[in-house]
## 1
Amino acid sequence: MGHKILIMNGPNLNLLGTRQPEVYGATTLADIEALCAAKAETIDVSLTFMQSNHEGELIDAIHAASGTQDGIILNAGAYTHTSVALMDAIGSVTVPVLELHLSNIHQREVFRHHSYISKVAIGMICGFGAAGYPLAMDAMTSYLGAQT
Ligand code: CA2
C-alpha cells in the first residue's frame, strides 16, 4: 500500500449539498468521501476521511496524525480564517498539510482572504469544488513522492 493520507473537514462541511448549493455545490460530503475513496484505489493511497465541527477535535486529529499519517489534506472551513490554535497544531507536527477549499476564497468576502492555515501548509488548492479533493490527493502524492 502506498502513502497514508488523512482528509480532514472542518465546521459545517457536514451540511454540504443540503444548503447554499450556489456557493458550495450540490455534492454531499458523503459523495466527496466516495469520490476520494475511488481516487485512493487508483493511486494506491490508504485513505482516512473525517469531519468535525469542533476545533479541539481537529487539533487532536492533527496530533494523532503525527507519526501515523504521511500527509494531511485539510479543509478547515471557517477555522481557516480564525484559528491560531489550528495553525500552531500544524506547526507542531512534521506531517505535511495541504490546504483545501471548495470555493475560491479570494473571490469572496475580505474576511475569507486571510488564512492562518496557509502560513504552515505546503500549498493550497481552492475554487474547484468537490473536484479539488482528488486534485489535492494527486498533489499530496506527488509532494510525498518527491521527498527523500
Ligand atoms: O470553500 C471552502 O471549502 C470553505 O472552507 C468552506 C467554509 C468557509 O467558511 C470557508 O471560508 C471556505 C464553510 C463551509 C460551510 O459549508 C456549508 C455547506 C452547506 C451549507 C452551509 C455551509
## 2
Amino acid sequence: MERYYQPEIEKAPRETIVKLQNERLVNTVKRVYENVSHYRKKMDESGIKPEDIKSIDDLYKLPFSYKQDLRDTYPYGMFAVPMKDVVRLHASSGTTGKQIVVGYTENDLDLWSDCCARALTAAGCTEEDKVHVSYGYGLFTGGLGADAGSKKVGAVTIPVSSGNTQRQITILRDFGSTILCCTPSYALHMAETLYAQGYTKDDINLKAGIFGAEPWTNEMRQQIEEMLGIKAYDIYGLTEIIGPGVGFECSEQSGMHINEDHFIVEVIDPDTGEVLPDGTQGELVFTCITKEAFPIIRYRTRDIGVITREKCSCGRTLVKMTKPRGRTDDMLIIRGVNVFPSQIESVLIEKGYTANYQIVVDRENNFDSIEVRVELSPENFRDTIKGLDKQAKELSEALKVVLGLNAHVKLMEPNSIPRSEGKAVRVIDKRKLLD
Ligand code: ADP
Ligand code: ZN
C-alpha cells in the first residue's frame, strides 16, 4: 500500500499546486527584491520590476542565479532575512570548487524536514522503523536532512553519520536498522563489507534504502538491492536549494517527484537559457518559493535531466524528474565526444562488474586518452593472464559500442580502488592539470 506523508499536497490536483505556486512566487520575488541587493540589482539591470511577475507564467522573465553569485556574495550576501532569524547554516560539500554557505530559519528547517519525511514515507518508512543515517552529519546537508525527516515521521533515528564501516555493520546487525540513508556508493561499500565479514543480507533487517547526493544508474540500484535485500530509492537535492528532499522516488522507482509546493522546476537549454518543453532533456533550474532565509531564484543546477507530468502509478501528482544524468561539470569531452560517467557505469554492471570504478582521462600530444579502471571479483582475479586479456578486450568493445570511442580497460585487483564514505570520486582528469 502506498503511503503519503502529506497526501493533500502530494496528490493535489494540478490547479491547487499552480495556485499555491503563483501566490508564493509573487511573494518571494517581492521579498527578495526588497531584502537582497543582489536580486534588486540584477532585476533592475534586466528591467524587471516585482510587479511584472504575476504568476508562474512570468517566471522566465527573471534572471538566472549561478553558483558564482553565491561565491561573489560569500558568505551571507544572498540571505533575505536578518541574521537574528537564521537558526542554522549549511555549506555545500565543495565537490566543484570553493564552498558556499546557505542559511535556514526555523520555518525553513521545518519545511525541509517535511520534504525529507515525504521521501522516507514514500520508501515505506513508518513510526515502526529504525532509520540508520550514514550520510555525514555536519555542514553537509545529507545527515541532518535525513535525520529531521525521520524525526517528523516518528521513526527511531540512528544518527551513525559516515565512516567506520565495520562499526556501521555492527550497528546494522545489533540495532536492527530497517531503513538505510547514505550515498549509493557508500551503500555498496557497506554491502561489500557485510559480505567480507562473512555475513549476508539474511543477517540484517534492512527493508529499504534512500540513496542520493551523487548520480547512480539503475544497474547499480539492482546490484545494491540484491546484495542488501532491499528496495533502493533515489533522493535528489542540493545545498543551494535546501539539501536532500527536493525530489524523491516512489514505489514506481522511475524518477523522482519534485516537491513543487516549495520548489518550481524548469528545464532549460544550457546554451541559450531557453525554457524547454516537458519531456526534453536539459539543465534543471529551481526556484524556491517558500524558503525565508535563502530563497534562490532560477538557480542553474548544472544537473542534466528531463521532467514529465505523465500519470504516476503511486497516485502522486507532483511532477517527476528522471535520475539526473550527472552534472554538466561531470561530462567529459574526449576527442570531441561527450561522455558521462553514468554511461560507463551501466556497461560495467551489465558486464558483471561491480560499481567500483574510476575513469582516468589524460592528454598526450594533443590526443585525449581514457582509461576505465574496474575491479575484478575475487573469483575472476584468479583467472589466467590470457583470460584476463580476453575480459579486458570484451569490456573495451562493449564500451566502444556505447561511447563511440576506444577506452583502455585496466582490470584491477579486488579492493584496490579507494572507497568513499560520501560522494565517490569517479573521474581523474589529468588534462585539467595541464591547462
Ligand atoms: P556539492 O555541489 O559540493 O557536491 P551538494 O551536496 O549540494 O554539494 O551536491 C548537490 C549535487 O549532488 C547536485 O547538484 C547533483 O549534482 C548531485 N546529486 C544530488 N542528489 C543526486 C541524485 N539523486 N542523483 C544524481 N545526482 C545527485
Ligand atoms: Zn510516483
